[in-house]
Amino acid sequence: MNVAFFLIPKKDIVYLKETATMRQALERMEYHTYSAVPLINDEGKYVGTITEGDLLWKLKNTPGLTFQNTEDIFLSEVAQHVQNSPVTIDAQIEDLISRAVVQNFVPVVDDQQIFIGIVRRREMIEYCSKLLLQRKVQVTNRTGIA
Asked: 135 pLDDT exceeds 90?
């Protein structure tokens, strides 16, 4: 099994370009109630993940920066404190699991490093849960013990 099985394509998720402003990021993240979103450059390549914490630290550590003037700060100017490592579309489930242990989502890129979507930890856990339940049913059916 590979990444494509779990992939949520780019067209179906929220992401931001590094040329977006802090204000755009704050408003979009608030609207969708996300605490982190993938960040891409103008070529469509994955460049990182922007988090609420990154935005908060930038606000705290920039003298004179207020919510009103966050529209003057581009996301490329905001330090990223969390590094969500991407996988390629041909990666195996083991690659996903090792990243999903520490990341809510795993960015997926093609062989040119173009961002093509994400795999959310939730879908992986739901899949594993379904497998465990199926295994339990099979054992119960064989042994007659629930």
From this structure: no
